[in-house]
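FIELD: query
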Amino acid sequence: MTQASPPYAGLRVLDMSQGLAGPYCAGLLGMQGASVIKVEPPEGDWIRSAGGGREGMTSLAIMGNPGKRSACIDAAKPQGKALLLKMAAQADVFVQNFRPGVIERLGLSYETLSKDHPSLVYVSITGFGASGPDAKKPATDSVLQAFTGMARLNRDSDGTPRRIPFLVPDTVTGVYAAQAVGAALYARATTGQGRHVQVSLMEACAALQAAPILDATLSDGKPAAPITVPAGIFKTRDGYLTVTSLTDTMFVSLMKVLGLEALAKEPRFALLSDRQKNAAFLNLEVSRRLVEEATRHWLDRFTAADVLSADASDYAGFRAAAQTVHMQVFHEVEQYPYGPVPLPRLPGGTADWPLDAAPRAGQHTLELLAEAGVTEADRAALIASGIVRQAEPSVT
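FIELD: result
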């Protein structure tokens, strides 16, 4: 049975943000049906040269911009600003992630746009917030992972803080910002009024880490007790797997599968609180046993005994797993210049919601200017002056 159409069908989003947090927020709205226009400077969003890739289509540029249409416009020029004001007047949602003060200098602040467009939902994404001693400080993934305790939480065995090797602050900020947009649109549906949604990477990192931050507070800075024991990623004869036990019953089942039933009967391991005190010993005993057999051997037995376990897969293994394929987690998207690439569909959505390729920088400039009412002669003049840029036709 065909599911309901995407909930944001008909919603118009003007995305002036660059990088990942803002574009991903707008991209999530687009994955739920919104029509998203991505406005980039003439040279393109800086994310197009971050992390490799070809012809400005990096993995991050693809991830943050599926299904959008792109126009390259110089917002610092009066004619470029005039174009953006016209486009903003037709939008339901406006997304920007400049440092505090920049969007005001461009004449595109919330106060300016909402004066004639009070129903606009305006999204400002910053690193550290709109005010305060660090408001204008440069904010990158590595800076926020260090500043918010994330890198220290991920420290190595020597205690050295380590960055988690993907853009956690940007990604989670995009998710929180998209959620806040949904709440603002709900409020607008009942009041008719838009609002200024302000989200910072710092606040998003705090919200994401609520549990470990509470653990550190409640334990007075001492290392928190492990949630479950035994637990971890353990080496097998031919790979790695994770295994754990949530309940006393599951602990007994785990020990039985491993042939360590005698440990399950010892008083020092009877309750989780007891096992937490002896976590190092138990984890060592489990690791010694698991390395004796292959991963598949253990997974089959753990599954039969209803013990929590999983192979520590690489991404190819994850994509190929039977459950992943059954749930249609990934769409194959025809993405220039690569051909088919795997993109995960939106959690909570359905497989029949469209998921389209990310645009090249300026791919739709002339098309979007025409929709904004700019005449053919004026479009040609804007191209000639360098105020806007249209991408060259793709070569397939």
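FIELD: remark
The longest strand covers residues 35-40.
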